[in-house]
């Protein structure tokens, strides 16, 4: 096992009827800005319920944080924070709203140009860069990203998507009530299953370091998603199925399975370029890239691919090649069984666009990806060609 530090201070309130914790954990004298998206939370009545819990606190609303949240939109919220002296943010939404709120929290009192926060990549932003952050909590409406219990955000700016990380941006608390997610369109649930699945494979299908606990938790998450993924799409109000999706998604990216193991974020980094270039949903980009990436990287990932085949898909027979082939095939079939297409051409993208994506990867410094930093632009090109 590799050395690791583990820190996660986010309080989780999981289950039905947990909104009353807002009153307990938002300071009584706080001036609160509720941040949300394009309207689903308003329409479902959730914003009204959240406001009721906030009682007599002074409350402002900031709506319109779009999927793949944009820097410009978030800077409008920063203006509200500064002009109204907001001292607590409450994100009500999915990954985009929570990520956007993390950025608002960091940018409101950063020392230089907030745009610079986009260029730290995976290097954590510290208190030397931001004078203070605005504390925030979240009410999760879409199980997928794990943003509700991690310190990362992905922010769109110009033609790119930029990871932003900081120990200062863990939510103070997150409310995970599976019933709040019942109103999701089926495609968003499918995206969520795939996002959680791929977060798990990116911390698991790398190379072995004898991290038995992390491996077995990862295998448990993958098997849970395979077992309940289709059910929770077909039966949106099946509480148990949805509860298992919600906790799988949180566990997939709260630091626990990634502690002490190699990590491969190449599927995500290539996927981000597909969202930025063609507007394809985050989860769908992962369904396109992962099967092709596993194929191209089968030698580097051989030992863990075999473990994945045997322990997750219970593939017992055949040669090593047969087992790996079948595991990749089953992965693709699983994504497709959720109603998500796995070929770039099925999203109307022509083969001659591969060059542009490779150029964008270069422009964004994504030239040494994966757990061994040897996915060069040429390897990314092979993956994209196979993903067509
Ligand atoms: O804007 P509204 O009207 O609320 O509609 C949203 C949005 O259109 C809708 N929605 C959310 N909850 C709903 C609902 N509709 C009905 N009922 C509900 N309960 O769903 C749509 C998509 O929402 P979004 O937040 O964009 O989805 P998701 O949670 O998948 O987040 C994707 C973003 O997270 C980033 C992605 O890059 C992308 O920008 N990621 C963040 C990560 C992190 N912070 O750790 C890791 C991930 O890998 C990912 O990159
Ligand atoms: Zn993701």
Terminal CA distance: 36 Å
Task: Write down the Rg.
Answer: 20 Å
Listed once per kind, the bound small molecules are: 5,6-dihydroxy-NADP, zinc ion
Helices and strands, in order, run as: EHEHHEHEHEEEEHHHHHHHHH
Strand content is 5-15%
**CATH homology group of the largest domain:** Dehydroquinate synthase-like - alpha domain
- Segments where pLDDT lies below 50 for 5+ residues? none
What's the helix count? Answer: 14
Helix/strand/pairing category? alpha/beta
What is the number of beta strands? 8
Average pLDDT, rounded to a whole number, is 97
- The CATH class of the largest domain, by name, is Mainly Alpha
Shape annotation: globular
Task: Give the CATH architecture of the largest domain.
Answer: Up-down Bundle
In order across it, which strands form the biggest sheet? 1-8-5-4-2-3
Q: What can be said about the biggest beta sheet?
A: 6 strands, parallel
Q: At the third CATH level, what is the topology name of the largest domain?
A: Dehydroquinate synthase-like, alpha domain
Number of domains: 2
* DSSP helix fraction: 40-55%
Overview of this structure, please?
By secondary structure, the protein is an alpha/beta fold. The chain folds into two domains: 11-180, 3-Layer(aba) Sandwich (Rossmann fold), CATH 3.40.50.1970; 186-387, Dehydroquinate synthase-like, alpha domain. The chain is built from 14 helices and eight strands. The protein has helices at residues 21-25, 40-43, 46-54, 71-84, 95-107, 186-202, 212-234, 239-252, 266-278, 282-296, 302-312, 320-337, 354-363, 377-387; strands at 11-14, 31-36, 58-62, 88-93, 136-140, 152-157, 160-165, 173-176. The strands form two sheets. A six-stranded parallel β-sheet has the order 1-8-5-4-2-3, with helices on both faces. α5 links the parallel β4 (88-93) and β5 (136-140). The radius of gyration is 20 Å and the shape is globular. The site of 5,6-dihydroxy-NADP has 34 residues, from α2, α5, β6 and α6. Residues 37-41, 67-68, 93-97, 99, 141-142, 144-147, 150, 152-154, 161, 180-181, 183-184, 188, 191, 195, 253, 268, 282 line the site of 5,6-dihydroxy-NADP.
């Amino acid at each position: 096992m590799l050395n690791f530090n583990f820190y996660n201070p986010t309080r989780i309130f999981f289950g039905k009827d947990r909104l009353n914790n807002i009153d307990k954990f938002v300071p009584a004298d706080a001036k609160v800005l509720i941040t949300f998206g394009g309207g689903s939370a308003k329409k479902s009545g959730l914003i009204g319920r959240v406001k009721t819990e906030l009682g007599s606190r002074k409350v402002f609303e900031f709506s319109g944080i779009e999927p793949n949240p944009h820097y410009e939109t978030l800077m409008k919220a920063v203006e509200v924070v500064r002009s109204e002296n907001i001292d607590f943010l409450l994100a009500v939404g999915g990954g985009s709203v929570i990520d956007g709120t993390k950025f608002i929290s960091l940018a409101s009192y950063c020392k230089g140009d907030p745009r610079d926060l986009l260029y730290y990549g995976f290097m954590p932003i510290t208190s030397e860069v931001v004078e203070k952050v605005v504390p925030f909590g979240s009410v999760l409406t879409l199980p997928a990203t794990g943003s509700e219990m991690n310190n990362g955000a992905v922010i769109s700016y110009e033609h790119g998507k930029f990871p932003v990380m900081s120990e200062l941006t863990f939510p103070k608390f997150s409310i995970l009530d599976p019933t709040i997610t019942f109103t999701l369109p089926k495609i968003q649930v499918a995206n969520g299953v795939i996002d959680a699945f791929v977060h798990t494979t990116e911390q698991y299908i790398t190379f072995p370091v004898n991290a038995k606990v992390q491996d077995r938790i990862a295998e448990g998450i993958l098997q849970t998603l395979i077992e309940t993924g289709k059910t929770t799409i077909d039966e949106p109000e099946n509480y148990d199925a949805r509860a298992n999706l919600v906790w799988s998604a949180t566990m997939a990216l709260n630091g626990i399975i990634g502690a002490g193991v190699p990590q491969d974020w190449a599927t995500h980094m290539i996927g981000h370029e597909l969202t930025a270039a063609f507007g394809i949903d985050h989860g769908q980009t992962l369904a396109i890239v992962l099967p092709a990436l596993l194929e191209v990287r089968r030698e580097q990932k051989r030992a863990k691919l075999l473990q994945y085949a045997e322990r997750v898909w219970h593939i017992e027979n055949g040669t090593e090649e047969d087992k790996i082939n079948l595991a990749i095939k089953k992965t693709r079939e699983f994504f497709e069984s959720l109603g998500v297409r796995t070929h770039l051409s099925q999203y109307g993208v022509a083969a001659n666009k591969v060059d542009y994506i490779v150029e964008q990867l270069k422009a964004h410094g994504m030239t040494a990806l994966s757990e061994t930093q040897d996915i060069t632009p040429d390897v990314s090109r092979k993956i994209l060609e196979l993903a067509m």
